[in-house]
Fold these 2 entries.
Entry 1:
Amino acid sequence: MPPMHISSDHPLLLRIADDLATHGWSQQSIFLPQALTAELAGECRRRSATGELTPAGIGRGEQQQVQEGIRGDCIDWLEPGQCASGDAYLALMESLRQALNRELFLGLEELESHFALYPPGAYYQRHLDRFRDDDSRTVSAVLYLNEAWQPDEGGELRLYLPDGRVHDVVPQGGCLACFLSADIPHEVLPATRERLSLTGWFRRRAGAPR
Ligand SMILES: O=C(O)CCC(=O)C(=O)O
Ligand SMILES: [Fe+2]
C-alpha cells in the first residue's frame, strides 16, 4: 500500500464538515480509492476466515451482551500497526478528525474503529451510537468495503433525519457515511449477501459539554 496523505483542508473533508454542521450527516460516495477499499475488504475477510471476528455486543463494559435479535454482525477492533491498509485508513481519519475540529470546534480526541461483517439476513435494529452511560462518541463514520453492491441486495444504512425524513445509504465499496452520534438514529437493513464495513467513532472526553 503506497503511503497516502490527505491534508486536513482537502475539499472532500471540508464538505463533510460542512454537511455535518448543516444537516448532521454526510454521504461521500467516492471517499476511498478502490485499491485501498479492496485491501481493507481483504483484511476483513482474512480476519473472518481466521476466526478473529466475534459476535458484536450491545452496551458497554460488564453490561455488554450479545443479542442477535438486535444486531447480528461480527466485529474486530482495528489498532494502529496491525496492517498497512488499516494504517492508511487511520491516517485518512486523522486528517478528517483535524478538519472537523478546526471547522466545527468539536474537540474530537480519538477514534475507535472496528471491522464488521453482517452475514446474509443479519441486521442492526434502530439505535443511537451514544451509550446511556458514556457520551464520548460524537461523530460516527462508516466506510463500506463491498465491491459492486447491487441495488436489490438490500443492506442499506437507514438514517432517521431530524426533519422526519429517512435517508438510505447503499453500502457500496468506497462510500463513507458520517453522522452526529447523539442526533441521528439509524439501522442496518438485512442484505442478501455478506456485508463488510469499517466503522469508526470519533470521541471526545466523556462528560465534556456538548
Ligand atoms: O454498518 C452500518 O451501516 C452502520 C453500523 C452501525 O450502526 C453501528 O455499528 O453502530
Ligand atoms: Fe450505529
Entry 2:
Amino acid sequence: MAAMISFNDVSKCYPGGFEALKGVTLSIDQGELILFAGHSGAGKSTLLKLIAAIERPTSGSIIVGQQNIGTLRRSAIPYLRRNIGMIFQEQKILYDRNVFANVMLPLQVTGFDTRTSASRVRAALDKVGLLDKERADPITLSGGEKQRLCIARAVVHRPSLLIADEPTANLDSNYARDIMAVFESFNQVGVTVLISTHDRMLLDSTRHRIIELKQGKLVA
Ligand SMILES: Nc1ncnc2c1ncn2[C@@H]1O[C@H](COP(=O)(O)OP(=O)(O)OP(=O)(O)O)[C@@H](O)[C@H]1O
C-alpha cells in the first residue's frame, strides 16, 4: 500500500534556534492508527503541526497525499486542510453558542447549504455520542464531553486524516478510554488517525503502532 505520509530526513528549528525535530524519517500508510509517544518537549506536537502545514520544516521533505508540504504555496494550504481534521489544545470551544453551532462552524466557510450542513453536524455528533446534547451550552459539558465536541468539529467535513495532539490530557482514565474508542471507530471506517500522548495507560493498552520521540529524534 502506498504511504499516505512520508518524512524524509526532516528537521525543524524554531526561530531562536531550538531544534525540535532532528533528521526524522518515517512512513505512514493510509488507514493506520498511530500513537506518538515521548517526554514533554520531545517534538510530538511539532511533528503533527508539520503534517498539517501549521509549521514548515527547516530541512528534509514531507509528503502528505501527493503533495510536498515543505514547498506548498500558502494558497494551497486550505485545500490540504480539507482532507485533515485537527484537534489541537489551542483550538477553543466558543461559549457564546451551543454545541450544534460549534460543530457547524467549519462548514460555514465551505459553502454547504444549511440542510446538508445540519445533517452533517448531527452525523458527527452522533458518531461521538453527543447527539442528545446538541442544544446544550458547552459550559455545561464534562471534560470528556468537551473533548468529544472538539472531535465532532474536527470530523464534520469528513477528512481522511485525523490529527489529535494530547486529546486525553486532563481526562481521567475512563474518559480517556472513551475518547480512544471514538478515535478507533473512525479508524475502523478507514480514517488515518495520528495521536500524540504521554498517557501511559493508553500506550500500554494499545494494539496500534507506537512511534516514540526523544529529544527530537525517533527512538528505534
Ligand atoms: N513556536 C515555537 N517557537 C519556539 N520553540 C518552540 C515552538 N514550539 C515548540 N517549541 C519548542 O520545541 C520543543 C518541542 O516542542 P513540542 O511541542 O513539539 O514537544 P511535545 O513533544 O509535543 O511536548 P509536550 O508534550 O510538552 O507538548 C519544545 O522545547 C518547545 O519549547
